[in-house]
Amino acid sequence: MRRAILYCGAAARGREWARITQESTDDLELRVWPEIGDAAEIDYLAAWTIPAGLFDGLPSLKAVFSVGAGIDQLELATIPAGLPLIRMIEPGITACLTAWVAMAVLAVHRDLPAYVAQQRAGVWRGMKVVPPAAHRVGLLGLGHLGQSAAAALGGLGFPVAGWSRSAKALPGIACHHGDAGLAAMLATTDILVCLLPLTPETRGILNAELFARLPRGARLVNAGRGGHLVEPDLIAALESGQVSAAVLDVAQQEPMPEGHAFWQHPAILLTPHVGAVTQTETGIEALLDNIARFRAGLPVDGLVDRAKGY
Ligand code: GLV
Fold first, then answer.
1. Which of 110, 213, 260, 273 is catalytic?
2. Domains by residue range for the chain, with CATH
3. Would you call 152 exposed, middle or buried from its count of C-beta atoms within 10 A (0-12, 13-18, 19+)?
């Protein structure tokens, strides 16, 4: 019997993925929700978000693949416990996010938020210019994306440290872990970059207490999720000068609501959750490759540990 992947996400990408799947596999078909067809033929779900009640109608489902790098948007509690959940690791996401992080770090390193504000006010005034070596970058999260960002930032000349939940040893990165490691890294971080997965443990981690542990005037980059940042705490830290600038790709509420204090803040640069987007060609290649591994009983790339939440 023909087997199928059900795709729930941006329709244009779904149509491309259906075409590529048809061209590159003999016995797999990709169907774009809500065109489910015979539900008994659906073995795999590839989703950005999952429509309510979907699992009840998919009796043969064997695994759930996230279309994105993150999985928090899938609402883990609604996914049946026995189903393996796999996040997307694909070179397109890694390349895009690495470039976005480099852009954001360079922006705060070279005072771009202040220069944008000066430009609006018609002010031509230079600030002190320092080399990358003068700004220590601390990465929260040393997974696939964190390691790639670390390599790029190290290549630009920034001293790079990183923090992860469990101990890691990575060439060229001062690795920290656990609570003590976090305190040590924060105390020596001029530009803090969040690349963490959003879990109950990391929700709200970017808060007043954490900002207070950074050197005065530190800069913040958030490429994780809006839920990592306690937004009023950032406003207060910018007002007090504890944090001097921020570049944010994510917000508590997306789209960010009208009238939100971040829109007009002179020390904040925003992008609308575009740091990385799963790329059509490399994304489907990674998905089909992972499904082939799964079918062959081989380990898949990006298997989520439900207890850890990533
Ligand atoms: C984007 O935020 C993703 O999770 O891929």
1. 273
2. 3-90+278-295 (3.40.50.720), 92-270 (3.40.50.720)
3. middle
For 294, how many CA atoms within 13 A lie in the half-sphere containing its CB? Answer: 21
Q: What three-state secondary structure class fits 160?
A: strand
Tell me the pLDDT tens digit for each residue of 57-93: 999 999 999 999 999 999 888 999 999 999 999 999 9
Tell me the mean pLDDT in the region 150-157: 98
Report if pTM > 0.85: yes
What pLDDT does residue 75 have?
87
Respond yes or no: is residue 273 known to be catalytic.
yes
Q: Is 278 left (phi over 0), alpha (psi -120 to 50) or beta?
A: beta
Measured CA angle at 101 (ends 263, 93), to 5 deg: 105
Check: CB of residue 50 under 8 Å from CB of residue 78.
yes
pLDDT of 241-281, one tens digit each?
999 999 999 999 999 999 999 999 999 999 999 999 999 99
Around ligand 1, the residues with Cβ closer than 6 Å are 68-70, 93, 276, 278
Q: How far is the CA of 73 from the centre of ligand 1 (A)?
A: 9
Q: Tell me whether residue 225 is one of the annotated catalytic residues.
A: yes
